[in-house]
Amino acid sequence: MHLLFTPDQIRAAEAPMLAACEAAGDPDRLMRQAAHGLVVHIARAVTRRPALGEPIVPAPTSVAEIYSGGIGAGTGYSPAAGYSPVSSLRGALIVGLIGPGNNGGDGLYALAGLARRGALCVAVMVADRWHERAAAAARDAGVELLVTQAGGPLPGTVFERASRWQLCAATAQEQVVPQAGGQLPVTVEELDVWALLRKADVIVDAVLGIGAQGGMWIPGWDEETQKWAVVGDELKALVIAVDCPSGLNTLTGSADELVPSAHLTVTFGALKRGLVVGAGREKTGDVYLVEMGLKTWLAAGPMPRLVTPQEADALLLAPRAGDHKYSRGVLGVLAGSPAYPGGAVLCSTAAAAVGQHDAGRGGVGMLVTAGRGETGASVVQALPEVVNVDRAELLSSAWPAAAQKATAWVVGPGIGTEPEDCEPAVAVMKNSQCPVVVDASALSLWEPESLLASRGDGTPIKAVYRDYVLTPHAGEFAALAQRLGVPTWDPLQDPLEAAYDLASAVNAVVLLKGSATVVAAPDGPVFVAASAAPTLARAGSGDKLAGVVGAMLATHAARALSSGIELSQDRIAELCAAAAVLHGVTYSIDS
User: Fold this and answer.
1) Annotated binding residue at 514?
2) 543 in a labelled binding site
3) Is there a binding annotation on residue 513?
4) For residue range 337-347, what is the model confidence (pLDDT) as tens digits?
């Protein structure tokens, strides 16, 4: 698993390394190391050569748009719309937008390396100051350095080597800036930045780093140019972010409309929280990590963790010799209603499909549905192996034998608001002695205090609530938190903290659905699943996710029961995150 760090933790880890470089008389050593990794990724992405390993976080694009052969397949980089790869880096036009700080320094050193490989590199300085040593290295390598006058606009066209490049003739009268000798950088009176960006093969976003947030407003640029990466359909370029897209909040993942969207983000040292969750998931594209030796200095502790597809797949349990259908896990599903009959079918078929790609590894041994009328019959028609019981029988003190065998339940997908469906759902939440996934309509029925009181068996509160997994999307999350009187962060602005706040307050595992799904245990780690494509934003995806989560919990709960142990909340949270990853990979491809 990859740990997710805050910007402050990254800076604290970098401090002793930077001090050592300074003491050794080479203050830019780490910057050049980062730039080298950036150069390698840019060079390979420009020519669509195989990527260096799989992205830590795959771009949230539809699978049809990923030419790498599958999500995170590691054979290429996600493309820009309309981008035509070049056969060689030599002659490719690479434009760097360079900010005043260390992020700009990283970009300048990277442009220097790319220029030495034959690329035509232009550095547009967007502020009235820059990293002096990096700028000198870039100019020595042949990078064109262009700066606004006092941060003002550069409309028009003119380059030191315009006759060679024929870049962008935005005025009838082209001017050629004379060689500037040792002056640094060249200052031009007229430059159409937007035209230059449209000509570029690659745009390197090196304006703002992990310490900045709030968008990349560049003084003097008109509104159209400010949104250069937002209206990306007009660009043929690959947009590559240095460490993070400029202006992204790397703590929370929040971003305003001026934060550019990258096809590829090359981040340094460790993975930042905001690159994975919230708007950061959508802004970063494929995220690759350049190791910088920070692990020794990074703070220890229960950090949020990103679950990879490989780690999720490893949590699928293989059947053991001597297993039978009950020991492999029995999942109970109370889903669907006459108004929403499809909820039961979607949830049950997704649960039954878990592990089927791998000879049944991870699959449940038995599926029990609690149907009403045609809802149960429709599931049996789709899955003849399912055992269906009458939903109303769950209101009695003696449950049907099949329902008593459940090692996990899913309650809620498509049950609506009718008493005939809601009352049995409440009965399962009150009386089940195994993990219960509370989804969709059932979230509005979940009442922690009344559930505890109704048990009346003296069970400690922690043991009572440990078995519940709440699975809201952002809207359901806000409604649930308000109904329970729990103050939380906005789930859209800071999903990591929001999920943890609610989990801690109600002492249940919370799975907050989104483009990146966040799973929080009350006293333990927070997990992130970031494998889903936008194609999953469709009706029924949540029903399928609930089924996959339920199947994962049912198999592990059965294995734990046979070993005489209980699943901890931390383990339940990890399994839920793994299920979300598997759901994202499986159904993104199916979509």
Assistant:
1) yes
2) yes
3) yes
4) 999 999 999 99
pLDDT digits (tens, 9 = 90+) for 241-264: 999 999 999 999 998 888 888 989
CB atoms under 10 Å from CB of 449, counted, come to 9
The answer, yes or no, to whether residue 490 has pLDDT greater than 80, is yes
Q: Which domains are present in the chain?
A: 31-298 (3.40.50.10260), 309-315+327-590 (3.40.1190.20)
Whether 473 has a binding-site annotation, put simply, is yes
Strands of 120-125's sheet in order across? 186-187, 144-147, 120-125, 93-98, 202-206, 238-242, 264-268, 286-290
Tell me the three-class secondary structure of 473-510, residue by residue.
CHHHHHHHHHHHCCCCCCCCCCHHHHHHHHHHHHCCEE
Q: What is the pLDDT of residue 590?
A: 58
Task: Establish whether 517 is an annotated binding residue.
Answer: yes
Q: Are 339 and 356 in contact (CB under 8 A)?
A: no
Known binding residue 542? Answer is yes
Q: Which two tokens stand for residue 274?
A: 């905001």
Closest CA to 277 of 235, 249, 317: 249
Residue in this structure with the two tokens 């006058």, named with its chain if needed: 149
DSSP string, 411-468: E-TT-TT-HHHHHHHHHHHHH-SS-EEE-GGGGGT--HHHHHHHH-S---HHHHHTTE
Residue type, 71: I
Q: Is the dihedral of CA 437, 439, 441, 443 positive or negative?
A: positive
Q: From residue 337, how far is each of 391, 421, 462 by CA, in Å?
A: 10, 7, 32
Q: What's the CA gap between 143 and 159, in Å, rounded? A: 11
Q: Is 515 annotated as belonging to a binding site?
A: yes
Taking the mean position of all CA atoms in its chain, how far away is CA 218? 28
**What's the predicted TM-score (pTM) here?**
0.85
Residues 6+ apart with CB under 8 A from 49: 43, 76
435: confidence class by pLDDT, cuts 50, 70, 90: very high
Per-residue model confidence as pLDDT tens digits over 373-401: 899 999 999 999 999 999 999 999 899 99
Strand partners, 203: 95, 239
Tell me the torsion sign for CA atoms 473, 478, 482, 486.
positive
Task: Take residue 435 and report the two structure tokens written for it.
Answer: 């993990």
Strand residue runs (E) in 213-277: 238-242, 264-268, 271-272
Query: Per the structure block, which two tokens stand in for 119?
Result: 């690329």
